Amino acid sequence: MTNHAFQKLNRRKPNSLRRVCTGAAISVVFAASLTMTFTSLAATVYNVGVAGEPKITEVHTFRKDPVQIVSSVGVPLAADDRIAVTPINGGDNSNVVVYKSGKAAVEVDGKEHLVDTEGSVLRTIANSGITLESGDEVSVDLGSLAYDGMEINIDRAYDVYVEDGDTVYTYRSTACKAGEAVYALGLTLGEEDELDLPPETDLFEGDTVRILRCSYAERTAEETIDFGTIEIPDRSLFEGQTRVISRGIPGTREVVYRDKYLGTTCVESEPLRESVTKQPIDAVKAVGTRVFSVAGKTPYSNLPLPDGFELDENGVPAHYKSYFDGVATAYYGDQYTASGMPPGVGHVAVDPKVIPYGTELWVASLDGQYVYGYAIAADTGGFVKGGWADMDLFMNTEDECWDFGIRGVRIYIL
What we know:
Elements: H1 4-9, E1 17-19, E2 44-50, E3 56-61, H2 66-72, E4 82-88, E5 93-99, E6 103-108, E7 111-116, H3 121-127, E8 137-138, E9 151-155, E10 158-164, E11 167-173, E12 176-177, H4 178-184, E13 194-195, E14 202-203, E15 208-212, E16 214-225, E17 229-238, E18 242-246, E19 251-262, E20 265-278, E21 283-290, E22 322-331, E23 347-350, E24 360-365, E25 371-380, H5 383-386, E26 391-394, H6 398-404, E27 407-413
């Protein structure tokens, strides 16, 4: 600990020291020196203080021996105590400092060590077996004398690194932030340069902060120009159906970019200019306008319709989840179905991966000539392996199957 008296003492550094015995020391406090002038003789004024004691004794004496001066004011001296004399104003007035031998507390590497005072702080630390390394910071002046009860804190320095392109700099410190390390090494950042860490980031042993230098470069890139699509109404197709008349051909263009780099990473690209090297050709497709209608047709299936089922003015379901156009054929005479439902009109064969068993359907031919009507997915058709049809419609007779043949159908999922 440092008392008020010792704080006053530290304003002046001792420039002479007489050793009474070996040992460590305690600080001494000095007050303002006083000069007494006599008519025919001027006596030297000494201010005597003992480290750790908040008192100052002023002595007017002809004595030059500091030991005698200290003894004259009743300060006891032990064998390991030390005395320091600091002249003031050319030596007429002096401070006499008595450093009492004892123990100093040295905190380093997270541990506290009680060590014998050995004169200066530097010598005390060295004789204790504690090694000071380059960049270590000590809480007190190494040249000052150690004293009993003194607290000495040693902050160990460590290496951090600053990477600037291919060059790596080492900065040694007891504690620093990313921005401080760069500044301490004398490295400057351009207006658009950045660090890979926020400047206030604490750096610990072995950490690296990288300077990302800003640079610009131009590059030329060939890019694709998407083609458009021209739609032509076609009454031969139902609404929702389309047919490709001609395929589109993409074009190409050359674009010159100005790329911004931070380090080796491109963080921004700005197009400067471009030129078309090949014009795109639009695709042309026919879009169906024909309304799908089977109004007035009698459904083949006689399964009971679900509650709430109704047809619109075109003879198709008024409410459904979705629909798709596919291909259907017909079959008859099976004794059982893959789902376990009995075979019969209205129970149709499907690909269960596409239409799960039990799905409610409504089916009509795209030519508008045939309405199978309400149906339930109940079986798996042989067409599934071949993939050439989407549905097999159960019918009562072989002749009816031949009459139906293979047709395009619209399948509504109810």
